């Protein structure tokens, strides 16, 4: 009945009309105006009168999505329960509201998480017990929200600090102080240490999963309604650098807020965080399978973070266009279709001359100047400031790329085909696209806790990390034999986590290990 009245819904950029969202026992109506919302409520009342269902209107809330509209000015008494400005409403576990503070959801989540430790603090006596308690009862209240809400780094650090403090030191208050008797890398390493959850790595994995959903190929059920909205945002961010045939060019760029080449303000904070987390991963992990020459020639050029396409101290060509007029000239060239090395090639596959390069970059530029070439008897574009260094830089990048594939200097490359993006990795001895990587590989890609460089079990016979991992595997099997409390003591003893009273406290300044077993 609601879908039969599409004039009351919200039109998406793709042309589809959204009138309602249903999940379990939650029903959400999407209206383009107040009269449309009233009309939809009348449809619901008609359905209830026929079906025998009953709508509890006291629990129904109307949220105004337009920040420029004051809910107090809406005259809808006895029709709709307009949610006042600044008051949140929970939908699928996430708080929404009109003109809520930016950090409202994050602060609410932080306070709720920290308040849970005193309530659950006395339920576990061992390291493994407290780790299980944190993973199942405490951190579980975070993951549902962090999937949809970006978390500032200082909040992540605070949550991680409280998690470590509770598991290692059995502290339940944020103000409690303790000394961690184990190095931070060993606190998070599952094979050689305690395996305490690393919050930042798990959040990064959530962002990578969201990116996979954006890059996934359309299924038989069609394209999700949110995906065109995100593509539209990234198109606005990239501006003249955007290519319809390569909508994921932004994966080669850094989300630099101060950059004048991209308009990062157009992007939703969640997707800005997705982009940031992706850019923090080394390129060697993002591109495991070496790309082909055709792939490199199709890659975006101007702001690329792909190191084989960097040359000299300035790395990419946009560094030469710091002045506004030069940057506008380069962006005009990008809007002319010159966004990759392949785009600069002539039809016969040869690299253009300097005059040809300047002409193609200046086409359609109202600020471009022309001059009369008396020798050739024709009009030519005048080279803008730094146009020659930019051309030479791009030429060096082109020759460098050809050298990587051992191609003869001066050889032509006609008919380079359009290729896929190069984000491929090896999964079970086969090369797979990033959007098909399994969960285990994603976690390995997202994990960025400090690496283990030393271990308390290091000895003359146990030197390498593989030896430490094998030894700790044996220790954990042995700790299952006694009672959990005794096994916990043995594990602490192996990891040098048992304090020795205070009789050697005077040696702590010169020998920090004097107070440990």
Verbal overview:
By secondary structure, the chain is mainly alpha-helical. Among the domains are: 6-96, no CATH class; 104-178, no CATH class; 290-421, no CATH class; 465-515, no CATH class. 39% of the residues lie in helices and 7% in strands. It has helices at 34-51, 104-120, 127-138, 140-146, 153-169, 184-188, 199-215, 226-238, 269-279, 283-286, 293-298, 324-335, 341-344, 354-362, 387-404, 439-446, 465-479, 484-494; strands at 10-11, 17-18, 20-23, 26-29, 89-91, 94-96, 370-373, 378-381, 424-427, 430-433. This is Reverse transcriptase domain-containing protein.
Helices and strands, in N-to-C order? EEEEHEEHHHHHHHHHHHHHEEHEEHHH
**C-alpha geometry:** flat
DSSP strand count: 10
Q: What integer value in Å does the Rg equal?
A: 30 Å
Q: How much of the sequence is in beta strands?
A: 5-15%
- Strand order of the main beta sheet, please? 1-2
Largest beta sheet, briefly?
2 strands, antiparallel
Helix coverage percent: 25-40%
| Low-confidence region ranges | none
- Count of helical stretches: 18
Mean pLDDT: 87
Ends apart, CA distance between termini: 72 Å
Class based on secondary structure composition and strand pairing: mainly alpha
């Amino acid at each position: 009945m609601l879908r039969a009245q599409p004039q009351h819904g919200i039109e998406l950029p793709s042309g589809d009309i959204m009138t309602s969202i249903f999940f379990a026992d939650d029903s959400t109506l999407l209206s383009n105006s107040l009269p449309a919302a009233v009309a939809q409520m009348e449809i619901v009342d008609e359905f209830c009168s026929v079906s025998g269902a009953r709508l509890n209107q006291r629990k129904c809330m109307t949220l105004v999505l337009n920040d420029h509209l004051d809910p107090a000015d809406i005259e809808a008494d006895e029709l709709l329960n307009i949610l006042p400005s600044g008051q949140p409403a929970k939908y699928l576990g996430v708080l929404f509201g009109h003109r809520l503070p930016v950090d409202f959801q994050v602060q609410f989540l932080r306070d709720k998480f920290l308040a849970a430790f005193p309530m659950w603090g006395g339920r576990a006596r061992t390291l493994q017990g407290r780790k299980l308690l944190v993973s199942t009862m405490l951190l579980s209240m975070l993951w549902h929200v962090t999937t949809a809400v970006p978390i500032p780094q200082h909040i992540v650090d605070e949550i991680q600090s409280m998690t470590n403090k509770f598991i290692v030191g059995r502290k339940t208050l944020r103000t409690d102080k303790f000394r961690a008797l184990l190095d931070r890398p060993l606190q998070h390493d599952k094979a050689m240490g305690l395996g305490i959850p690393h919050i930042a790595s798990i959040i990064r994995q959530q962002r990578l999963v969201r990116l996979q959903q954006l890059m996934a190929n359309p299924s038989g059920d069609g394209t999700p309604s949110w995906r065109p909205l995100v593509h539209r945002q990234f198109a606005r961010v990239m501006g003249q650098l955007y290519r319809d045939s390569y909508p994921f060019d932004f994966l080669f760029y850094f989300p630099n807020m101060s950059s004048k080449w991209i308009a990062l303000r157009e992007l939703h904070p969640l997707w800005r965080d997705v982009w940031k987390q992706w850019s923090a991963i080394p390129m060697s992990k993002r591109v495991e399978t070496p790309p082909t020459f055709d792939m490199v020639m199709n890659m975006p050029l101007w702001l690329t973070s792909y190191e084989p396409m960097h040359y000299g101290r300035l790395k990419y060509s946009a560094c030469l266009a710091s002045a506004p007029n030069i940057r506008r000239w380069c962006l005009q060239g990008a809007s002319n279709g010159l966004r990759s090395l392949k785009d600069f090639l002539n039809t016969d596959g040869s690299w253009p001359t300097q005059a040809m390069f300047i002409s193609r970059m200046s086409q359609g530029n109202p600020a471009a100047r022309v001059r009369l070439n008396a020798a050739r008897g024709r009009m030519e574009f005048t080279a803008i400031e730094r146009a020659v260094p930019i051309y030479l830089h791009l030429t060096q990048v082109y020759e460098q790329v050809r050298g990587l594939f051992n191609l003869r200097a001066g050889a032509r490359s006609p008919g380079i085909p359009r290729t896929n993006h190069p984000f491929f990795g090896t999964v079970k001895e086969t090369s797979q696209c990033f959007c098909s990587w399994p969960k285990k590989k994603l976690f390995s890609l997202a994990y960025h806790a400090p690496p283990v460089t030393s271990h308390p079990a290091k000895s003359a016979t146990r030197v390498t990390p593989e030896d430490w991992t094998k030894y700790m595997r044996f220790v954990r099997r042995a700790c299952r034999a006694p009672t959990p409390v005794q096994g916990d003591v043995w594990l602490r003893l192996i990891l040098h986590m048992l304090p020795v009273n205070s009789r050697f406290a005077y040696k702590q300044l010169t020998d920090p290990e004097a107070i440990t077993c």
